[in-house]
Structure formats: structure tokens, C-alpha cells
Amino acid sequence: MTTTGPARDTALHADADRPSRREQILQAAAQLFAERGSRAVGVDDVGAAVGVTGPAIYRHFAGKDAMLAEMLLRISERLLAGGSERVAAAGADPAAQLRALIAFQVEFALENPALITVHDRDLVSLADADAAQVRRLQRRYVEVWVAVLARLHPAADAAACRVRAHAIFGLINSTPHSAGQLDRAATAALLAGMAEAAARAW
Amino acid sequence: MTTTGPARDTALHADADRPSRREQILQAAAQLFAERGSRAVGVDDVGAAVGVTGPAIYRHFAGKDAMLAEMLLRISERLLAGGSERVAAAGADPAAQLRALIAFQVEFALENPALITVHDRDLVSLADADAAQVRRLQRRYVEVWVAVLARLHPAADAAACRVRAHAIFGLINSTPHSAGQLDRAATAALLAGMAEAAARAW
DNA sequence: CCGGAGAGTGAACGATGGTTAACCTGCAGC
DNA sequence: GCTGCAGGTTAACCATCGTTCACTCTCCGG
Predict the structure, then answer these.
(1) Is B181 within 8 Å of A200 when comparing Cβ atoms?
(2) Does the domain spanning A5-59 belong to CATH 3.90.25?
């Protein structure tokens, strides 16, 4: 197993638009973690996926856990930031806000099935402090949804809205399980329709 | 083929209503696997959870993988059998069949959150042959749903129904994420309502 | 009373895999 | 040209953990 040509080129004349080695590692790791689970993936595997040996990882990350922690933190941050942003941009109508949130989540899930998979499968593999941080971010994202759902269901209490939000996440985040069944646009439309129906039910 | 009858060996012990040691182990393992992930749980942990040492497990299972394999196979079998049964008992009306399937899945998910969690998180930790067997059962269960959904949406093709089925599973199987928010009955009603709305959307 | 099977124990073995150490290399900038 | 740092490499270290082994101990059937 020797290094192939292209990996060398990027190291030589650091192309600005080409992702850095660090980003390559994170992306490759996400893919592998999603396929086999983080604990079943060795540092050597991640290295091999980007054309280096295992210990080279330690030039870019403090360790395997740090890699996973950064991965999950980034996902949670992207979701929270993106969700908040879309709601703010959707005006004051809760129905429009809901549609914006759904569109965002569907888009994210279809664009990053590996991240979605790792996000909830490997949270338990995190050190306590990191897991707590990720959960804090997740909770805030959930509350963004809950705020919108609460305005759509004035009679429902927050707990019910939370259950509802998690259910919608589960619905939309099912994409890794149904990959390759339909083309992207059709899947997006179907999931968005289902999510909206589920959000409004009762 | 180590699948023996349910509680046959309880006859050996005086108190027959207590589950056999083998069943205790499976149940404790399911709980631990759900909490930390199967690869993070040691044989010693499972043993300790039922009051024995690690190696004692080997009196009841060929190994750790065999334990996980039996766990996942049982879940898949229970789902397939239960789903098929409920559909058959629901008569010819596809709407009634759908309600029966939803009620069954909701009931199962609320009754066995740990099994639901392990079922889709630790499938990747299985040996190839076992994983293939589990996936075969899962596929058959999905097809039970697809058959019902296809009759509700005559214009939709099988692929769309499959996406729909996975989305509904995701919705209902979100229970481990929203545990403790509402009481069981309220959660069941909410999820069933959302699932039905999602199933009928468009 | 006796012997065998089932169940459990503590100790040891071996593989796996994360991490570290020591060493190499090639461009950057005085 | 020297020097330094960024990034890689190989080899070794070490902890963890699944698994096996050689024993007990305790029922129970004959």
C-alpha cells in the first residue's frame, strides 16, 4: 500500500480550494465511522483513507477521541446555527418557520448522511465532558424546533412538542436507511411532506 | 442454531417464574449495549450486571458476538412476526392494516427502547453472516409495511413506499430520544397520530 | 453414597489498537 | 547554505478485553 500521486500534489502547492489534510482526515473519518462505527475503525484505517499512516493523525489531532469530539461538535453547531438562521429568515409566521426548519433538516440529512449516522450512533463513545457539550447544543437545537411547534400547537405543552420534535428528527434522519431508493429531489419532497404532516397532526 | 425453547431450562431451578440465567444475561446485555454501545461494554460488565464474573457468560453463549447476534435476530424476528400477525388480523382494509402496524411498532418501541437502540446502532458490529441474516429479516418487515403503504398510495412506486416506511420507523423509533417527556399513553397516542399523518401525506 | 454434569471462579494468554518515541525529509526564510 | 518547522514514517510500548484453562462447588439420579 503506497501513496498515490494526487495526495502529494496537494501537499506541495497548497491549493486554496483544496481541503487541508486536517479536513480530509475529518471527512474520511466521518465516512468510516458511519460505515463501521467509531470504535471499530482504527487510526490506521483513517490514515489509510487519506493516504498516510496511522500515527500521522497525531500531527493534526490530539487523539482519536478528539477527532470524534470535534466531528460531533461541528455537526451540532452547524445544525443549531443553520436552524436558528433559517427560522430568523422565515419571518414571523410559524408555518413558514416550520417549513424552513424542515427544509433545512432535510437538506442537511440528504447532504450528510454519514454525519447524521455518526451524530447519534457515536455520541455514547464520547468522553463525558464532550458528550455533555454536544448534548447542550442538541438541546438548544431541539428548543428552536419546540418554540416553533409550540406556536403551531398552542394547546400542547412543551414536553409534547419535544417528543414531536424528536419524532420529526427521526423521520427526516431516516435517510441513511433509505439511501439509493429515490433520487434526491423526490426523496426531499417526500420527506418534507411527511414531516410537515407529522408536525401538524392533531 | 442455538435457539432453544423459551424458558425450558427454568424447570431445573426451584423458582420457575424467574427468567433463566441465559435470559437474564441477554436482558442485562441489551440494557448495557443500549447505554454505552456493544463495543464499549465488556464481558465482565455484562457478567457483573447479573451477579457473575465475565467468563461465566461462556457457559451460556459461544461468545460476545453470539450474544449480540442472538439479540438482534430475536428483535428482527419479533418485529416481522408481530407485524405480519397484526396485518393479518386487521382484515382487508389497508387503512386498518396501517393503524395496526403503527400501533404495533409504537407499542414495541415504547416497551423496548433499549432493543430499538441496539437494533440499529449495533448492526454494524455483527459478523457479516449474522448481519446479513438480520438485514434479511428487516427487509421482510419493511416489505410488510410497503405492501400496506402501496395500497394506500396506488400511484406511488415501491421505492417511494420504502422511503416512507423507513421514515415512519425513524419517527416511531425516536422514543429512546424523548424518554421521560410524557407518560406512556400520551406518547403512544402522539406518535401514532404523527405516524398516521406521515403515512398518508400526499 | 457416589459420580457426573451444570455453573462459576480466578489466573493466564494473545490480539488488537491507541499512543508515544526517534528519526527522516523537504521546503521557507533569514 | 544553514536552520527550523511541519508533516510523515517505522518500531516499540502498553492497556484493554475476549477467550481459554484448570479448578471448585453443588445438586441430583441411581
Answers:
(1) no
(2) no
